[in-house]
Amino acid sequence: MNSSKNISWMPLVVVAAAAFISALDSTFMNVSMSQVVIDLDTNVGTIQKMVSFYTLITASLMLISAKLQDIIGKRKIFFLGMVIYGVGDLIAAISPNATALFIGWALLEGIGSALMGPALISIISGTYEGILRTKALAVVSTMAGIAVAIGPLFGGLVTTFLSWRFGFGFELIIVVFVLINYRKIADFAVTASRNDFDITGSVLSVAGLLLLMSGILQLSDKNIKFCVILIIVSIVIILMFGFFEIKRGKAGKTPLFDVTLLKDRNLSNGTLIRLITALVMAGTMFAVSVFLLSVLKLSAFETGLILMPMTIGMLSVSLAAPKMAMKIGHRYSMLIGFVIAVGGCFILKDQFTADTGFLSLLPGMFIYGAGLGFPMSLSVDVPLSTIPPQSQNSCSGLVSTGQSLGMSMGTGIIGVVLTLGAVSGLRDAINTYTPLNLSDEEFSANAKMYMQKMGNVDPLTLSVKDQDALRSIINAVYHNAMGVVFMVAAGLLVLGFILTLLLKNTKRQK
Predict the structure, then answer these.
(1) Averaged over 24-35, what is the pLDDT?
(2) CB 288, CB 358: distance < 8 Å
């Protein structure tokens, strides 16, 4: 195809459209949570679990999807993923309750994204060559970046002036376009047989990741014992997966993933850096959205506007970071980014009060997003920079898994941190606003109800008589909680900084 002067760009248009809605879906619902809580009579904890499960199911199936491309074919897997994603979109758009939304959005769209994810890059790589491939991959990455950047504002617009359901409806239009034109994509030959599929390894990898995230989510229910049990079992299963893959490789069979590649420190540390960065980004965006919607009572549109500086900073730096990496290397560029992001955390930690406005958050949000832009854009190249060509597909799947798992863990862990930070601030808040004279149990019950319903409760249903004092306490608690969130984020970013120091410095070649 590339030798012809009449290059068809339709495969790129189709793939870029799929990348756009997949990225958009991961951000636009953050600002719609408050209205979803009202419309479906649910709570923020349930929405948090949906967001986590969506990215978790994507992460857990990514390695399997990468292998299925070789066995079934890139175009068929891409088509199947888009069909499943479209069915999920439709169910989510008309969902009458939280269960239906979970099935459509978290489950089916998660599976669809997992099937499409690895195919997006491999289709482009197999369709174009040389400079055309570079340009095409840049277009796909840019489309995904634009979707992430405009996601909060798009979600705010449709939720405020129409309904959050129209967001899924908009995606469904693009799904129909992709399904009509998917045959423009070349039908690549398969490179493996069904006998090469590692069933045992697939079961172990999915089970390990699902149990790990399930354990983390148990923290929000304060079921510490069950949480510890699930996490220990998940670690055991993940270790079993590693030993089984090594044994399978030594037996001359094709493993789902060659774990011996993890000896390469750029791959192992780079994947962890990708996970940490995604965790921090997704978690803090979730926490900020909860604060703006429930404490400040902002509309979804206003919430999207306040989140824009973060996403604009991230996107603008992501486009400029590769040029810096050419000059000083990936490692030093990423180190600069982590320092900037930590600085953003310290700026933001004290900004969340009852009087918080757009201008007070703008500098910190932009600096924080700009700092994250460096590792977000460069941590894809670093893990693959020292990997042999024959292992690139497998390792790309690992890096994608790390990112999806990080986003899932971010929403779950930072959501738990937000709750724990609120609980830890109860005593100080009660001491400050003594007119209530409440027991810890009574106040905890009121605060928990207020948080879970994102402020969408009738104050008369609460047991506290002095509603103004109650709201003052809740504002104080949230201020404390958001400070804890950004200090935890800063700690994770410092860990990312340390892991980056251990990388081999590489310069992107022109």
Answers:
(1) 71
(2) no
| Residue 1 lies inside a defined structural domain of this protein | no
DSSP 164-230: THHHHHHHHHHHHHHHHHGGGS--PPP-S-GGG--HHHHHHHHHHHHHHHHHHHGGGGT-HHHHHHH
Q: Which of 121, 117, 123, 108 is nearest to 172 (CA)?
A: 108
Asked if the model's pLDDT at residue 385 lies above 80, the reply is: no
CA 407 vs CA 57, 220, 410: distances in Å:
11, 17, 5
CATH number at 154 reads: 1.20.1250.20
- Residue 189, Cβ neighbours under 10 Å: how many? 8
What interhelical angle do 330-348 and 300-328 show, nearest 10? 150
416 part of a folded domain: yes
The Cα 309–Cα 303 span in angstroms is 11
| Span 326-365, pLDDT tens digits | 778 778 888 999 999 999 999 988 888 767 777 888 888 8
User: Does 165 score more than 80 pLDDT?
Assistant: yes
Residue 110: burial class (beta carbons within 10 Å; 0-12, 13-18, 19+): buried
CA distances (Å), 362 to each of 44, 205, 366, 392, 485, in order?
25, 41, 6, 39, 18
Residue 4 lies in a domain: no
CA dist 20 and 263 (Å) reads: 34
- Is position 3 within any domain? no
- Quick check: 344 and 489 in contact, CB under 8 A? no
Give residues with Cβ within 8 angstroms of 452, minimum separation 6. Answer: 43, 44, 45
What is the domain range of residue 335? Answer: 262-510
What pLDDT, in 10s, does the model give residues 480-490?
Answer: 778 888 888 89
Residues 443 and 499 in one domain: yes
Our count of domains for the chain comes to 3
DSSP 245-306: HHHHHHTTPPPSS-GGGGGSHHHHHHHHHHHHHHHHHHHHHHHHHHHHHHTS---HHHHHHH
Each as own residue / partner, the long-range contacts of residues 123-129 (CB below 8 Å, 24 or more positions apart, any chain) are 123/11, 123/15, 123/74, 123/75, 123/78, 123/185, 123/186, 123/188, 124/11, 124/12, 124/15, 126/74, 126/186, 126/188, 127/1, 127/11, 127/12, 127/185, 127/186, 128/1, 128/2, 128/7, 128/12, 129/2
Q: Is the pLDDT of residue 323 over 90?
A: no
Alpha carbon distance 297, 303 (integer Å): 9
Q: How many other β-carbons are positioned within 10 Å of the β-carbon of residue 460?
A: 7
Q: Please give the average per-residue pLDDT across 260-282, as a whole number.
A: 82
- Cα–Cα distance, 106 to 55 (Å, whole number): 8
For 131, counting Cβ atoms within 10 Å of its Cβ (0-12 exposed, 13-18 middle, 19+ buried), the class is exposed
